[in-house]
Amino acid sequence: MKYKLTRTLSALAFVAALFTVPRAPQAAQITQPASEDRVALYQALLDLQNPWTVMCVAAHPDDEDGTSLIVMRHKYGAHTVSLFSTFGEGGQNAIGPELYEELGAIRARETMAAAEIQGSEPHFLGLKDFGFSKTRDEAFKFWGHEEALRRMVLEIRKLRPDVIITNHSTTSNDHGQHQATALMVVEAFDAAADPNKFPEQLKDGVTTWQVQRLFVRARGNNAQQNPDRQGGSPTIVSINPNESDPIRGQTFAEEALHALQQHATQGPWPKTIEEMSMRLPPNMRAPGNRPLIRYMLVREAKGAAPMPAPESQNFLDGLQLPAAVAQQLPLPDLTTPSDALKNPERTKEAIIETYRKGNYAGNSAGLADPHRRELTRGKMEIAAAFISGLHVETQLPTKTVVANSSLNVPIKIVNGGSERVTVTNCGSASATAKSAENRAADVRVNHSRLTTERPLSPGNSFTLTDKVEIPNSAKTNVPLAQHLYEPTGLGLNLNLRCEYEIDQTKLGIDLPLRVDVAPPVEIQQVTPSLLVVTPTTRAQPQTFVVRLKNHQDTPFDGKLQSFNANLPVHLAAQSAKDIEVRLTQNLPAQNETLTFNLSGPSKGSANVPVFFANAQVARNLRVGYIRGFDFSLPNALNALGVESQELSVDDVKSTDLSRFTSVIVDNRVYESRPELIAVNQKLLDYANAGGNLIVFYHKSDEWNPDERRNRPQLAPYKLILGGERVTDENAPITFLEPDHSLLNSPNKMGQDDFVGWIQERGLYYPREWDPQFHALLQSNDPGEQPLKGGLLVADYGKGHYIYTSMVWYRELRGGIPGSYRMLANMISYGR
Ligand SMILES: [Zn+2]
């Protein structure tokens, strides 16, 4: 598989943005730089003028303020990084069945894609996202306050931001993980600078670090009373999303929306700024415009340069480098990028001369601020290469490697400039690394590299191949979900570097690459991955499908041992890359975890938990369902031994629904398949004529009647959702109508059925409903008002309608027996 550098670079610094440019294939034809090159060159010249780093701290992927990150990079040229407390694995998934760690691995990569557009560099603390919580104490209970702070302080000490901004506030009425993150930012602001805090971190180039300013997003009119703020009168920075990017021909808001859309699992996102504006409350709407983003200065370092004015448009206004640091960062005198581009020849000479005279090629260790010096070196090198018309491109032949192997990486060097250059050295960066701090790859790699000097005249190009050795010690991060929380969970960095000479000056350019490291042979999947058996299905032999992937180029011998040791499967000289093994086995008599073991070139195992649910169903059920984002519903119906059929929206339109005893609209289907709204009347008619229509939870803005979206009341009677949640998965459940048949037949529901729940009880609880509905279950988080709308049922004509905002899908998926018993009652209702 060809894997463009552009895709793997997403998470890596500014260098990434510059080498993503598709190039004309024939070097000789290059006369005028393409417009993408102009953008890259403009950005490189802008970056060169800004020595500062801005960090945005957020609890979850998609909480980052992408607009401000983009403005700080694209308008001002600041180095920008984002720091996320978690991978967001406790969230929902709007595009696929993955949840938990699998979702976290996807969201980490969505974040990298967003960061590529933002021109920023994402980092993660790897704290566990356990789902929605209402208080920061709950978050700290899971994270450990000290441990979480320790990680944040370490990232600040390594990344050395001058300014931190965050969307989150310590006390806003917000997600507990947001509040906890906001509190840690305030604490870390001081702790990172304090040598007595986490002193064990202060080694290997990591030192204390004093952030100059901390800004917290001001929402509505709360700027004046922001609780995170030190005394004094407020200082506000306003970021205007509606300004145009000086070179890219879009507004910052449009760029930010494009970045936001990369968080696809958290969608659906607006497609246009217009649509985005319509989601705001009416008093904040202005067609085509986004409201200003306002931040308040809440913390300043002792002796930090004061903001020159109480209102400004730049977090960095007035900051001054200490003289000792400034002296080590000589910069060419370029004024603005546009001016510099008017005379590219002079600009080129100025950059190259400053690089040479400033000895940027020299070792930065021991200097006053080696990190900033290394960042500036990188900026100088990128600007020098681009203004000289030199392009270095590389394509990884594969995205996934195995330890103890080698990889041939082609590096194409194009001289699109007017002057001869001499390429002196090109290949794995470790051999040329000068400062361990900023440039070290994760591992030291051996390589065969260009050893002789090679001249490259204007209009020419050549490609050389660097043989990168992946050492035996490379840490495996595949399957991604299994390694999510490990320091190497996002892959192995392979930093390449090319060096060349122009105008008698030695220059270089870094090419950061990233690969995933897989075991030689991987158990990719066992289906089913979790098994629930009921009295109906328990005695049936179960077929498991084990999918293996051979990541090596050579065949392998191995043995797959199932939990039933009598049935090992020998895999002899398997040359296929993808191997599928089917095993039909009888199940053990009790709850047990079944293990499949692989031996051979790599050892691996996969576990399949088996749960027994004593769930009875009425006879002769036929269930039609419109599936949501995952397969928890069809899997559960199979486990119950019920005949079922997935229905498309077209099926709903054209099928005679009366042949189903129940029809289920799965989670958030009115949002994921909005076409269903147009045929909703058919579903209601089905219930009215004697059917049993069951609707699982939706978000309030996906459900409530809304003229602008042509969405009527979707239930047969008034049913309005609010935003309330019960996030404590152990919150007590009260039976409001204990004798109601939905709670008693065929399975008598009891408190045991609500034990061991996962993540939460329910989301977006109904706020108002017609008296026709019977509310059966009540629950609430500690100290809050009881919510009665978790399970609503009404007679409708000759049939029934059930709406439930409880998270049955998480519980079905997690094998919680009570959820199977309740689903059995719902589909048996009225039979
Ligand atoms: Zn969040």
Q: How would you concisely characterize the structure shown here?
A:
The protein has 831 residues and is of the alpha/beta class. It has 23 helices and 37 strands.
**Broad shape:** globular
Q: Are any ligands bound, and if so which?
A: zinc ion
User: What are the low-pLDDT stretches, counting only 5+ consecutive residues below 50?
Assistant: 1-33, 430-448
Q: What is the typical, i.e. mean, pLDDT?
A: 89
- What's the main sheet like? 8 strands, mixed
Distinct helical segment count: 23
Distance between the termini: 54 Å
Q: What kind of assembly state do the chains in view correspond to?
A: single chain
- β content, as a range? 25-35%
- The strands making up the biggest β-sheet line up spatially as 4-3-2-5-6-8-7-9
Tell me the Rg in angstroms: 30 Å
Q: Considering DSSP H and I runs of 4 or more, what fraction of the residues is helical?
A: 10-25%
**Structural class, from helix and strand content?**
alpha/beta
Structure summary, number of beta strands: 37
Itemize the secondary structure elements and their pairings.
Layout: E1 3-4, H1 5-8, H2 14-18, H3 35-48, E2 53-58, H4 66-75, E3 79-86, H5 100-118, E4 121-127, H6 136-143, H7 145-159, E5 163-166, H8 176-191, E6 213-217, E7 236-239, H9 252-260, H10 273-278, E8 293-300, E9 311-312, H11 323-327, H12 337-342, H13 344-357, H14 370-387, E10 390-396, E11 400-402, E12 405-415, E13 421-428, H15 436-439, E14 447-448, E15 454-456, E16 461-470, E17 492-502, E18 505-518, E19 521-527, E20 531-533, E21 542-550, E22 556-561, E23 569-574, E24 578-585, E25 592-599, E26 604-612, E27 622-626, H16 632-639, E28 643-646, H17 649-654, E29 662-665, H18 669-672, H19 675-678, H20 680-688, E30 692-695, H21 700-703, E31 719-721, E32 733-735, E33 766-769, E34 774-775, E35 777-779, E36 791-796, E37 799-804, H22 808-813, H23 817-828
Parallel strand pairs: 2-3, 2-5, 3-4, 5-6, 7-9, 11-18, 20-26, 27-28, 27-29, 29-30, 30-37
Antiparallel strand pairs: 1-10, 6-8, 7-8, 10-12, 12-16, 13-15, 13-17, 14-16, 17-18, 19-21, 21-24, 22-23, 22-25, 25-26, 31-33, 32-35, 34-36, 36-37
Zinc ion (ZN) is lined by residues 59-60, 63, 175, 178.
